[in-house]
Amino acid sequence: MKKSELKKIIREEYKKAITESSEYDLFVTIGNEYESLYKKLTNLAKNTNDPDWKKALTSLILDLSKWEDKCLAYNSKLGIIPGK
Question: Domain segments of the chain: what residues?
Fold first, then answer.
């Protein structure tokens, strides 16, 4: 199973678990925005002929992937974010 498929399943399960609670899962809360930003950056990188921009966008995509891994690590370590 691909990492992206596993993340999607985990997000869906968390979403089901906390739909009616005052607790929050990091990836359920920001998952759509993350995926949208990743797709936009990827499309920009694919659609530019400027080598400097392609390099910069590729760097941003790599940073975003590292950020996602860091979020997953916090999510795994700390679990659900308690609400007020």
Answer: 3-82
As given in the structure block, the two tokens for residue 57 are 């966008």
| pLDDT tens-place values along the chain, 84 residues long | 566 777 777 777 666 665 556 778 887 788 888 889 999 999 999 999 999 999 999 999 999 999 988 988 888 899 888 877
Q: Quick one: which of 84, 80, 77 has its CA closest to 18?
A: 80
Which distant-in-sequence residues (6+ apart) come within 8 Å of 70 by Cβ? none
Q: Phi-psi category of 79—alpha, beta or left, where left has phi over 0 and alpha has psi -120 to 50?
A: left
